[in-house]
From TrEMBL, chain A:
Residues 1-14 have a biased composition (Pro residues). The keyword Transferase does not apply. It comes from Somion occarium. This is Translation initiation factor eIF2B subunit delta. Belongs to the eIF-2B alpha/beta/delta subunits family.
TrEMBL record, chain B:
This is Translation initiation factor eIF2B subunit gamma. Belongs to the eIF-2B gamma/epsilon subunits family. It is found in: Cytoplasm, Cytosol. InterPro entries: eIF2B_gamma, NTP_transferase_dom, Nucleotide-diphossugar_trans. SUPFAM superfamilies: Nucleotide-diphospho-sugar transferases. It comes from Somion occarium.
Length: 462, 414
């Protein structure tokens, strides 16, 4: 097998095709006499020396950042996390980010060789670590600045919450917007919004819900009437945003609440994983209608969202049990129905959801427990997703989720990447369609293999 | 037809920086009038750069553009001259400084609260109070404090964020000053996990009862793991919401921001009586963040009241009208540890001299490059590497300069 193509340290122009001898070291003839493995080792040693020299005395932030990004396992990865570093060069950071995401997309299917000082898993090396939000370049609206901070610090999480927060922030931005002379709102507003959107994406990768909502917003902007006075056009756009939130999220949730609630019978033992806003509404609604059931909440680190769901359900008076994911096997025989939420659903019927949902679904299928996914139609994505490696997100290091007791100092409890240790916390995973019994949406209860018919069903309604 | 391509400037101003330049009575005799010429504290040099340079450069690095500089009326001319000079244009080119003078004299200084009240009409967005004598360390960008404020103001309903730093330990090799002691630090109660400032000891309280410190029980109920620190000093850097100025108007008796207003501002977060009295001013209903709907769907947020509330509070939400925005009215705090970098406020003689010594130890002196200054320095003069000689300074023969800062246009020796 040919050796894997290598990414040069700077600038990242994508994977260098061909063999390792493309790197110009001294003594080419001696390289040819070495075997491929020896050449690779020499190359990695040189790259490590270069990275060490760069990490030792970084002249400007860009090369060391670019050195750190393709090799997130290196100890120099500590620097992108510190906000002080990122303040040094905001302009090259943004452009470096863009070229890096382009390179990453191209290199996505190719494994990246790791530097000699940190041996990491190649599977997730193309994600890179999440970066702190640097001082914004250009005119980023303060609302978007604050929203990006909330995303990057995981204060607002969950597909629905992020989409609603983004749309509300855009309402403020649109209201503060003033069309410059010699320009029309429908054309200029989009170019004005693009850097704000990229700032949000830089804080945290965009969710499918946000993407769909923004696409719809762009469609509305381009379709806005050119003859309307500016304030009317802006008000109309804000009204459309409100309608989108109301129709595709709030009312959809109400319909799902009713439909899924009808599936819950007295005496049921319902299992749910982590916390989904839709599933929470379903359970609270069914309880309010007077059905008698008990809930098992399965939870896992690092986010421990199940604890919050537990407190909400318990304060409503529902009988709850709380277990962590490893205890699932012991309890699955008691379960009659599994209700989970989704981050997005794909046209091949796969459900992309919080990491751990796939395990719950597969275990349930093995014990012939029906798995029902509650999901609004605006979470539908036309792409086909076959695994959770090509698209995923790693949780940032450190104690963001306050999951430790306050007695001990945080520094001693949180693990950091170092020479012999790499922390990996993927946030999402993919549930294959054969493990799912049904998907409850606001257009009906759909079996997973006909998820692709959702756009057709929507077209009939709208 | 006008085809000129005018770039659209749809910049919404997020923060206004308010820089307070006082008389600096603690730095006398350096700041006392030199004959008739006033010596503003803000223009005292630290390693040959005016003191005001440092906080202004710090502000610029964090992306703030608007500055309101308040100085006493006698100093207005010199400060104005400095702002318009070339040296300032190179240090902070993109700041828009609005210089306002306040009528006060050296003997009758006005409290900082009164200054704010007077200029409140010029401030119509969230603002940052920065003293002219705070020298920030390079490891602490202002954006760290700003980001904490931005996140908490929208997520939590916090009203302000403050900055405290650990008093730097004196260098072992330096001789202790015999003539005046260092700045006294105040006792502070704060919560480390959430970064909340809970209680600041005021000089009035110390005068009333020097032996004991009284803490509110509701404070401890809310934050049972708070810390009491005695070695933290206030940097006098406050990032506040605009509504804080409205509350200041309600309290006309307050004179000093640091000593009276900020300790008082920490109380509404746990004192229910003050919260009901001032809560609607600090967080008016029409100012509700539109994130309420997003937070309802958020997976890491529960809308339930905290477990630390007394039992009676749990039943009352039923009677209140929805939406019950329980904003926390918190005052955040960012604590800068001494190990992370040297920082100080140059408001006493001791810290002023210490700052100069610290900066001297950071740089090594090399003879100036430009020929004019070079020619004025006699080659036989001995200048050690831990001192600094300014531009066009004449240094005579047989002079020995050690560990000192010499300014510009001086004459040393014959």
């Amino acid at each position: 097998m040919a050796p894997a193509p290598s990414l040069p340290i700077h600038p990242p122009n994508g994977p260098v095709n061909g063999d390792a001898s493309k790197q110009p070291p001294q003594g080419r003839s001696s390289q040819k006499s070495m075997t491929k493995a020896e050449r690779r080792e020499l190359q990695e040693k040189q790259r490590a020396a270069k990275a060490a020299a760069k990490a030792g005395g970084p002249v400007n932030g860009a090369p060391s950042k670019q050195a750190a990004k393709p090799t997130p396992q290196a100890t120099a990865a500590a620097t992108p996390k510190r906000p002080t570093k990122s303040n040094e060069a905001p302009a090259p950071t943004a452009s470096a980010l863009r070229t890096q995401t382009a390179a990453r997309a191209r290199a996505a299917s190719v494994s990246v060789p790791t530097p000699a000082n940190a041996r990491g898993l190649r599977i997730f090396s193309h994600f890179g670590l999440p970066k702190p939000v640097s001082v914004a370049k250009g005119d980023i609206h303060p609302t978007i600045l604050r929203l990006a901070l909330q995303f990057s610090e995981f204060k607002i999480t969950g597909a629905n919450a992020r989409c609603i927060a983004t749309l509300s922030a855009f309402k403020t931005v649109i209201q503060d917007y003033a069309t410059p002379p010699n320009n029309t709102l429908s054309r200029h507003l989009m170019t004005y919004l693009s850097p704000q959107i990229s700032h949000l994406v830089a804080a945290r990768p965009m969710s499918v819900t946000m993407g769909n909502a923004i696409r719809q917003l762009k469609l509305e902007i381009s379709g806005s009437d050119i003859d309307l006075p500016e304030q009317d056009a802006k008000d109309a756009l804000c009204q459309k945003i409100d309608n989108y939130i109301r129709d595709r999220i709030i009312i959809a949730d109400q319909v799902i609440e009713e439909t899924a609630g009808n599936k819950i019978k007295d005496g049921d033992v319902i299992l749910t994983y982590a916390r989904s806003s839709v599933v929470q509404k379903v359970l609270l609604g069914a309880h309010a209608e007077g059905r008698q059931f008990s809930v098992i909440v399965v939870d896992s680190r690092p986010m421990l969202e199940g604890k919050r769901l537990l407190s909400v359900l318990a304060s409503a008076g529902i009988q709850c049990t709380y277990i962590l994911l490893p205890a699932l096997g012991a309890i699955i025989t008691e379960v009659t129905l599994v209700l989970v939420g989704a981050h997005s659903i794909h046209s091949n019927g796969a459900v992309y959801s919080r990491a751990g949902t796939a395990l719950v679904a597969m275990m349930a299928k093995l014990h012939s427990v029906p798995v029902v996914v509650c999901c609004e139609t605006y979470k539908y994505s036309e792409t086909v997703q076959l695994d959770s490696f090509t698209k995923n997100e790693l949780a940032p290091q450190g104690d963001l989720f306050s999951s430790f007791p306050s007695v001990k100092a945080r520094d001693s409890l949180t693990l950091e990447n170092d020479e012999h240790l790499e922390i990996l916390n993927p946030l999402y995973d993919l549930t294959p369609p054969n493990c799912i019994t049904a998907v409850v949406t606001e257009v009906g209860v759909i079996p997973p293999n006909s998820i692709g018919s959702i756009p057709v069903a929507l077209g009939r309604l709208l | 037809m006008d085809f000129e391509e005018t770039p659209s400037k749809i910049t919404t101003k997020e923060f206004l920086a308010v820089v307070l330049a006082g008389f600096g009575n603690e730095l006398a005799p350096l700041t006392s009038n030199n004959g008739d010429e006033p010596c503003p504290k803000a223009l005292l040099p630290i390693v040959n750069k005016p003191m005001l340079d440092y906080p202004l450069a710090w502000l610029e690095a964090s992306g703030i553009r608007d500055v309101l500089l308040i100085c006493p009326a006698p100093h207005r001319a010199s400060v104005l001259h400095y702002i318009n000079s070339d040296s300032s244009a190179s240090s902070f080119p993109s700041l828009r400084i609005d210089l306002q003078a306040f009528d006060e004299s050296e003997n009758l200084t006005v409290g900082t609260c009164q200054l704010l009240r007077h200029f409140a009409h010029r401030i119509d967005q969230d603002f940052i109070i920065v003293p002219c004598d705070f020298i920030p360390p390079p490891s602490l960008p202002l954006s760290r404090v700003l980001n904490k404020f931005r996140t908490e103001a929208t997520y939590d309903g916090a009203i302000a964020t403050t900055l405290f730093f650990e008093q730097p330990k004196p260098d072992k090799t330096s001789t202790p000053e015999e003539w005046r002691s260092g700045p006294a630090s105040t006792s502070v109660v704060w919560d480390e996990k959430s970064g909340t400032l809970l209680h600041v000891d005021t000089p009035d309280e110390i005068d009333d009862d020097p032996e004991e410190m009284a803490l509110n029980m509701s404070l401890l109920r809310r934050y049972p793991r708070s810390k009491l620190s005695a070695n933290l000093q206030d940097a006098h850097v406050y990032v506040c919401r605009r509504t804080v100025l409205d509350v200041l108007k309600e309290k006309p008796r307050f004179d000093s921001i640091r000593e009276e207003f900020i300790p008082w501002l920490c109380t509404p977060q746990y004192n229910s009586r003050k919260r009901s009295k001032y809560g609607h001013i600090l967080n008016p209903l029409h100012n509700l963040p539109s994130q309420r709907l997003a937070l309802e769907h958020c997976t890491l947020h529960t809308g339930l009241p905290s477990a630390y509330e007394p039992q009676s509070a749990l039943s009352s939400p039923m009677d209140e009208v929805a939406p019950t925005e329980t904003s926390s009215l918190r005052v955040g705090v960012v604590v800068h540890r001494a190990s992370a970098g040297y920082t100080a406020r140059a408001n006493t003689l001791q810290t002023y001299l210490e700052l100069n010594r610290h900066f001297l130890s950071q740089t090594t002196y090399a003879l100036p490059i430009d020929s004019e200054s070079r020619s004025l320095i006699d080659p036989k003069a001995q200048i050690t590497s831990d001192s600094m000689v300014g531009h066009t300074t004449k240094v005579g023969e047989r002079t020995n300069i050690k560990k000192s800062v010499i300014g510009k246009h001086c004459v040393i020796g014959n």
